[in-house]
Amino acid sequence: MNTDVNWAILNNRRIMTSTTSEMHSPRLIAFHLPQFHRIPENDAWWGNGFTEWTNVRKSKPLYKGHRQPAVPLDNNYYNLTEPAIRGWQARLARAHGIYGFCYYHYWFKGRKLLEKPCEAILESGTPDFPFCFSWANESWTRAWDGANHEVLIQQDYGSEPDWKAHFDYLLPFFRDRRYITHNGKPMFLIYRANDFAGMPKMIACWDRWAQEAKLPGIFFVKTLTAFDGRHGTEGFSASACMEPWLTVRGRAAPALRCQWHAQKLVCRLLSAWGRPQKLRYVYEDIWKQMVKRTYAANEFRGAFVGWDNTPRRGPDSWIFMGGTPEKFRAYMEQQLAGAAQDGAPYVFVNAWNEWAEGAYLEPDVTHEYAYLQGLKAAVDSISQASREQLSKRLSFPARDTA
Length: 402
Fold this sequence. Notes:
The protein is an alpha/beta fold. It has a single domain (about 20-390), classed as Glycosidases (TIM Barrel), CATH 3.20.20. Helices cover about 40% and strands about 15% of the residues. It has helices spanning about 5-10, 20-25, 40-45, 50-60, 85-95, 115-125, 160-175, 200-210, 245-250, 255-270, 285-290, 310-315, 325-340, 370-395, and strands spanning about 5, 25-30, 100-110, 110-115, 130-135, 140, 150-155, 180, 185-190, 220-225, 240, 280, 300, 300-305, 320, 345-350, 355, 360. Strands 1, 2, 3, 4, 5, 8, 9, 10, 11, 13, 14 and 16 form a 12-stranded mixed β-sheet that branches. The protein has a two-stranded antiparallel ribbon with strand order 6-7. Strands 12-15 form a two-stranded parallel ribbon. Helix 7 packs across helix 8, helix 11 packs parallel to helix 13 and helix 13 runs parallel beside helix 14. It is globular, with a radius of gyration of 22 Å.
């Protein structure tokens, strides 16, 4: 399996011109949440038997027409420790145009959480499907929003020996032939890069240790989020946009942000007057901002299926209304086309299975496979356009016989 992208090779091929990027079809990577199995910590914090499905099942609608709870197709409330489920996910993703999964990775100074599915993937060698990691390096709290409310487990980065232990744990994954690499370097995302002042030093150490382990280094990717949307942080080779909140909190047009602030004020006033009203963002507003803005070099575009985190936050949730599989397909095609024009090798979609945030591609009882089918249509459209453009550039002009 070739999980590597090499821009240098692509750009130096004799048959290509400087517009090679226009012909490139980016690879789609879906963020993947592993919290669909029991762990002792969640049993203690949230109650015996807790998994992500617990919040999904108990969710209640907040207003007329609010589609809660979300129900997986065929009541497939799966357990990710089962090999058959991991295989099903990989086959379904591949069949619908997804290149690989980016699993969230949880490490707290040697303490691991939700590690069992990925360790089983490594040990078993199955499924045969590309993957990489995003280190979700924020503390866990009861608020589910990354803020410092009631902390369940505090992130502690430690010192160089702790960094080495973390690297050593990940090294077998980095060496696995399925692990996604860029120019031969294992790709590793970090969710909140600026939470740790020593991050550049830690990155330098990891890069050195990787080279000592006969790897070219590590391809570090900073996740651009609502917490920190600045591209170009020291030590990182690229950035990946985490949508929709990067756009909502930092990249939307000023006029749209002013509109949202006004709506929030109205909702607060109505609540104070005993007429509570839920603020809802418009799906198209966010997507239009995402597809039309300019992206920096090595800033990988993001995408999102939908958003409604009512299962996690109840009345304090954030909701995006108006999303449909048809709209998702149309915007996804535009985002992929923009990435192809940029010459970007990847687009990151949020998400494969964030059921408690309303950001999932997996089939449910309402839309069944429609979102996946829309994604496949968008990927196929861009791939076909790339092939046609390549064919035109490789065709020779007709010989003049006059």
